[in-house]
Amino acid sequence: MLHPPTLTHWLALSALLFSIGLYGIFTRRNAVGILLSIELMLNSAVLNLVIFNRFVASGDVDGQVMALFVIAVAAAEAVVALAIFVSFYRHRHTLDVTEANQICHPGNSTP
Amino acid sequence: MYLQPEIIVITTAFAVLGMEMFLPPRHRPWQTPVTLLGLAIGLAAVVDLMIRGEGEFLNGQFRFDGVTGWFKISFLSAGLLTVLLSADLLGGRIKAVPGRDRGLLYRGEFYTVMLFNLVGAMFLISATNLVNLYVCLELATIPLYLMVAWRRGDPLSSEAGMKYSILGATSTGALLFGLGLLYGLTGSVDLLTMGEQLSFGPATKLAIAMVIVGIGFKLTLVPFHMWAADVYRGAPLPVTAYLSVASKAAGLAFMFQLFYRVLGNGLADVSMALAVLAAVTMTLGNVVAVVQTNIKRFMAFSAISQAGYLIMGFLDRSGAPSMVYYMLVYVVTNMLVFGVIGFYLNETGREQIEDYRGLARTNPLVALAMMLGLFSLAGIPPLSGFVGKFFLFSVASKAGFHWLVAVAAINSTISLYYYLRIVRQMYIEPGFEDDPPIRPSRSIVTAMGLSTVLMIVLGIVPFFYETIYEQSRQWMAGAF
Questions:
Q1: Nearest to B184 among A41, A48, A97 (CB)
Q2: CA angle A19, B253, A48 (to 5 degrees)
Q3: How many distinct structural domains can be found in chain B?
Q4: What is the pLDDT of residues B57-89, one digit of tens each?
Q5: Nearest residue on chain B to A7, judged by CA atoms?
Q6: Predicted ipTM > 0.95
């Protein structure tokens, strides 16, 4: 007989998602890939909120409301970040973040 | 009704946006006075509300009291000074450097984005609910990504924007995970209820660590400070100035909400971690600032070390007034220094520290203002920076962290060395041969004059500190 997953299982899932996102941020070199990994992290947090709403505070919907807000805000964040990536791409013709080293370049003395 | 300041700022934002849409380009410079007027009326509304006392609105979802009032005053004055600083750049008054786009375009949109960001910060300190708190924190962060990348023709600006948005979003992810854990541990989103329900265990410590990642990013605490130097360097100067004060003040507001309302009873358990964080932050900021040659990077590390001093106030429960006061002082002082940097950058295109040589001969008053600002940041006695640091150090010593006070004192000495480097360039080194005196524009003179006066007044008139102290006590009594 199949048991329904418990709080621990769900939390393990969200922790796993979070770790995958963090790993992606550290290893990806393409800015869009990093953004995807960040979305993974945010989604693990959203999952957390919904899980806790279900298992800890099942009487109200605060966690679900917050989850909805987080999804909306994450969309706004993605829009802004992608717009900035476009602007970056126009200058460098690449989205490789290891190429984003012009600011620290010593020859760059004029503002 | 306690929402007047926010409503005024939002109305101004939409009015400026409307002017951008409907006015012909030659009338658009009027957006600057309109924004200034809106912010000034907003400031007056905050002062008016503070005189009338505290209260709640929207069924307790929005709280106004003395401490929130002081936070709003510092946000609004940071905004006001930023508008004055950016007027020259937006008006095209800038020395051209071949091959580089150095102006600032889209006046109306720039002000609108900045005003929305201000509103986010103003709501942030008044929120009493985790959902509001999170949304306001994001509103106080996301527009900043745009402002950093505002100069589309400049590769440095978009590079800075990319670094800022990626690191900012990552820290948000960690913060949100921590907030989710706190919600799970308490089963409530009301901050005060969360504070009552919270008990300390390993999961709480994990949640606090995650939250500190998010706060550390905004406040540039040390393991999370990496973005600061590059972003400060790459962003247009008025944005750098705004970022260094408003974003930091918003981070402090967020920290106030979480540390005093949610973690209130367990503050002593995290104080050791905070002390270590403060010590590392101020030491690294100061040591790295010594070797900087670019003044914007230099100010970034100076800002990092100031954040280290600032969070010393969380070590003891009586620290809230010292932090509010120091933040106010920091806002006006930093805006003064950035005012001078911006003025010099606009007029001459120079931004290296050694380029400041001889400024005292060409523009003695500007050099004097810069010197006063730097002395206040270093904490030389008659100026307000000293008073603020004194209160913060006494908080740490009251909490029993004598080693931290010693570290902070050593750091203040180091900081005096590098702040004096600029003063030396201005007063002692021979200047450029053929430099005529520079005539500053009216907006810059207003910004520099206003922040100099405020900086001196805050230091020598005890009214401010006493009022903040009294109101913080009431706020703390309500928080527990």
A1: A48
A2: 30
A3: 1
A4: 888 889 888 889 999 999 999 999 999 999 888
A5: B184
A6: no
